[in-house]
Amino acid sequence: MKVKILIGSDFPLNKKEVRAEAGEVLDLPDKVAKALIKNNAAEKFDSKMKRARTKDGKFIKDDPSTLKNEAWVEEE
C-alpha cells in the first residue's frame, strides 16, 4: 500500500528498523502501512503513477535495496 509519511518515523521492515522522513511516499506492506496510518504517522497515498523513463525513453528499473520504488513516478 502506498502511504505518504506525515511525521518522521522509525518502523520495522524486513527485520530491520527503517527511518522515513515527512513527505516521503513509500510502498509498504499493508500491515506496516495500516499501523502507520492508525498512529497518524502516515496517510494513504492515491495518485496516478506512470513508469519512470530515462532521457532516452528506456524504462528505469527499481533498486530493491531502497525503500523507494524508482520504477514509478507521479504523473504531472
Q: Could you name the key traits of this structure?
A:
3-stranded antiparallel beta sheet, two-stranded antiparallel ribbon, mainly beta, 34% strand
Describe the protein's architecture and organization:
The mean pLDDT is 87. The protein starts with a strand and ends with a strand. It has one helix at 30-38, and strands at 2-5, 9-13, 16-20, 25-27, 42-44, 49-51, 72-74. With 76 residues, it is mainly beta. It is built from one helix and seven strands. The chain has one domain (2-74). The strands form three sheets. The protein has a three-stranded antiparallel beta sheet, covered by helices on one side. Strands 2-3 form a two-stranded antiparallel sheet. It is globular.
* Helical fraction: 10-25%
Shape: globular
Number of strands: 7
Class from secondary-structure proportions:
mainly beta
How many domains? The number is 1
Query: Would you list the SSEs in sequence order as H and E?
Result: EEEEHEEE
Percent of residues in β-strands = 25-35%
Name the strands of the widest sheet in spatial order.
Answer: 4-1-5
Helical region count? 1
How confident is the prediction overall: mean pLDDT? 87
At a glance:
By secondary structure, the chain is mostly beta strands. Helices cover 12% and strands 34% of the residues. β2 and β3 (16-20) form a beta hairpin.
What does the secondary structure layout of this molecule look like, with pairings?
Elements: E1 2-5, E2 9-13, E3 16-20, E4 25-27, H1 30-38, E5 42-44, E6 49-51, E7 72-74
Antiparallel strand pairs: 1-4, 1-5, 2-3, 6-7
